Amino acid sequence: MPMEKKSYTFDEIKQKMVNYCVYQDRCHAEVEQKMRDFLLIPEAKDEIFIYLMKENYLNEERFTRSYIRGKFYIKHWGRNKIRMNLKQKGINEKLISNSMDEIYDEDYEKTLNKLFQNYISTQKGLKDYQKKSKTIRHLMSKGYEYEAILDMITNAND
Prior knowledge:
Layout: H1 10-23, H2 28-35, H3 42-54, H4 60-73, H5 79-88, H6 93-99, H7 105-120, H8 128-141, H9 146-156
Helix pairs in contact: 4-5, 7-8, 7-9
């Protein structure tokens, strides 16, 4: 038997949405999705949205910047993968581009180099060019730009 959805008052829902945003930065799409759990009329949804933004619980730029920092500095994703995932969350291209300065170029190069060295050293029983091409594919799948990878390899061999 399907479970009855508990009904909440408007204020309870508002508080739940505040808690949802306080726990970690959210984007509009995530909040929108979460609000679908509660059967709210559009006016009530709008009112909660406006409240969350006015009180700075919901801030798309802050979300974007913290997302970029987390995915790069913790997960070691490249810019392409970060950009693609933010787009899927409905973040606009201009905000994404303006927020990419959260990643310092020097850190980006260092991380790319470290990932390259770590991955290529695990490739056994292959010819050098095979190791290299496999490693390049791996780094591209993590969202690093082909040009950035080639630059790094070229500079490493100087």
